[in-house]
Amino acid sequence: MKLKLIVIFFIIFFSKNLYSGETSEWLKREIDIILEAYKNQNLSNETRFLLIEKTINNNFAGTGIAKFVAGEAWKKSDKNTKKIYIDNFKRHLALNIASMMQGYSDQTYELTKSKYDQKNQVTLIDMEIFSDTGSVVVTWRVKESKDRFFVIDLIVADISLVVTKRSEFNSMLKKVDNDLSKFNEVLFDQNQISYEKITE
């Protein structure tokens, strides 16, 4: 009986390690696409961003994150307003991630640690980014859904991107009485300003 338990433990342990390794390999490929886009001097700023935006939209759980950060405003909105909001949010997220990654584009990085959180069924992958002055660790939270991986959060200096966005959006939504339709106008204008800056 003891031997059976030990065998089961090792099977679970090694299968989770293999799973974490597969997730890390996938994440490295996707990160490299973004970083290579920044290094490619033949791309215009707009083409570069659109390529990065496509990669981010493909690999982040944009719709799920959008719903979470909208909070109560999501529940009381109609279908069309929700659709417009998701599109606005995905561009907002892409602009944020693209801006962050641009800051790391001329530095080297290493995926240093990968851990599978059994309770939440999420893989946490630490990415250490090296510079002349030291290093910073970014933790990617990755979940598998429908036989593929999605990034569900980014943690920088122990601060969750998703939680930060929820707090930021809650403040902005209060100014428009939690009206997602009005908020869409605010977010669209904000995106336009950020888009012009990153593509100029």
Molecular structure report:
The chain is α+β, with helices and mostly antiparallel strands and 200 residues long. It has one domain (2-199): Nuclear Transport Factor 2, Chain: A (Roll). Helix content is 63%, strand content 22%. The chain has a five-stranded antiparallel beta sheet with strand order 1-2-3-4-5. A hairpin with a 2-residue loop joins β3 (134-145) and β4 (148-156). Residues 2-19 have low confidence and may be disordered.
| Whole-number mean pLDDT | 88
| Spatial order of strands in the largest sheet | 1-2-3-4-5
Radius of gyration over C-alpha positions, nearest whole angstrom: 19 Å
Distance between the termini: 67 Å
* Weakly predicted, low-confidence segments: 2-19
How would you briefly describe this protein structure?
With 200 residues, this protein is an alpha+beta fold.
Topology summary:
Elements: H1 2-39, H2 45-59, H3 62-70, H4 72-75, H5 79-104, E1 108-117, E2 122-131, E3 134-145, E4 148-156, E5 159-160, H6 161-174, H7 180-199
Antiparallel strand pairs: 1-2, 2-3, 3-4, 4-5
Name the features.
globular, Nuclear Transport Factor 2, Chain: A, 200 residues, five-stranded antiparallel β-sheet, 5 strands, disordered N terminus, alpha+beta
